[in-house]
Amino acid sequence: MNNKFDALKDDDSGDHDQNEENNTQKDSEKEKNDREKPQSTTKRKAVVPGPAEHPLQYNYTFWYSRRTPGRPTSSQSYEQNIKQIGTFASVEQFWRFYSHMVRPGDLTGHSDFHLFKEGIKPMWEDDANKNGGKWIIRLRKGLASRCWENLILAMLGEQFMVGEEICGAVVSVRFQEDIISIWNKTASDQATTARIRDTLRRVLNLPPNTIMEYKTHTDSINLPGPGDRGSLTRLEDHGTQRGQLYF
Length: 247
Hints:
Layout lengths: L1 H35 L18 E12 L8 H7 L1 E8 H8 L12 E7 L15 E7 L4 H13 L9 E8 L4 E7 L5 H14 L9 E4 H5 L26
Antiparallel strand pairs: 1-2, 1-3, 3-5, 4-6, 4-7, 5-6
InterPro entries: TIF_eIF4e-like, TIF_eIF_4E, TIF_eIF_4E_CS
GO biological process, one term: negative regulation of type I interferon-mediated signaling pathway
Subcellular location: Cytoplasm, P-body
């Protein structure tokens, strides 16, 4: 009987050892699969204000893009060309990024800085942008750095007073001129776009005769063929003439 008991015990131990080997093999395969998963599936740590920092109402992300002049830009290549600089959630975190960034006036031609709410890509086709548009101001060379700083500080400080309508802002450096724009979600909301326009005039201290142009992203998406996504290739008629610059 003892021999039988010992035999059963030995057999049971063998099964246990085999199960351990199987479990070890499964764990190894799981670890391997986890390592092989694309990085995009890994959750990023949420950006939050630090202790004693001043939180912003929304988190924002800085982006940078640059392209070769004269080369057609498809939607896919444009997205691949946008480089994310970083995301911040407080006033202090913003200044840590901004104080180390090159000013727009020192960028080379066909370069862009974008500042958008976290989760919104600086692309017309993004869900938050596709039904919206942007106010555009064309600048003489030498004005972009000051106007860009005033614009983004007003945006971070919620001076536009339009709730969640603001998506972000862009400064585009070109060879003969520079362009700044502020994007909103709903192009059809005339009251909101008018408030954004009036606030933009105030925070940038624009002269009364400054040319401002509003362009819907729908028109941009439907342009015949790829073009310069930062240039004003087609403008809505708001009683303005293309080519006039601020200052």
